[in-house]
Amino acid sequence: MIGPSGEFGIHAGQSVPLHATVEGWLESLALTQHASMCAKQITKATGDDVIGIALNGLEPVREVMGLADAWWRGADSLVAVYTGEAEALSFPRGRTALIYSGLDEWGLRGGVTDGDS
């Protein structure tokens, strides 16, 4: 669904905005593809394990304009945290995070440099 301010979200019992814009959602999809091709390892966490993921020291990936679903960038990793569907369904065990690790500069940023973002 598209919200009144242009946010992209889902409606399943209740409305939950996932990204601030449709473009942010598309960036998230592109980043998923890119990270999955470049990562040396992908680790999945679900339910309460998602809460324990340390995001301090990581920077948000602004391009995805994450709300309930967001991405974070570290020194050699990207972390995708998906909580929107679990929130919409009132199902906390449905929270999911994917940690893409072992990334080099291309894996972390693709063709974007610090001056471009």
Provide structural commentary.
It is a single chain. With 117 residues, the protein is α+β, with helices and mostly antiparallel strands. The chain has one domain (8-108). It contains 3 helices and 7 strands. The strands form 2 sheets. Strands 3-7-6-5-4 form a 5-stranded antiparallel sheet. The chain has a two-stranded antiparallel ribbon with strand order 1-2. A hairpin with an 8-residue loop joins strand 4 and strand 5. The longest helix is centred in the N-terminal third of the chain and has 17 residues, at 22-38. 26% of the residues are buried.
Mean pLDDT: 92
Number of domains: 1
Shape, per Cα inertia axes: globular
Number of strands: 7
The value of Rg in angstroms is 14 Å
**Which percent bin holds the helix content?**
10-25%
Alpha-carbon distance between the termini?
27 Å
The assigned structural class equals alpha+beta
Lateral arrangement of strands in the main beta sheet: 3-7-6-5-4
Order of helices and strands: EEHEEEEHEH
Query: Low-confidence segments, ≥5 residues, pLDDT <50?
Result: none
The number of helices is: 3
Portion in beta strands = 25-35%
Largest sheet: 5 strands, antiparallel
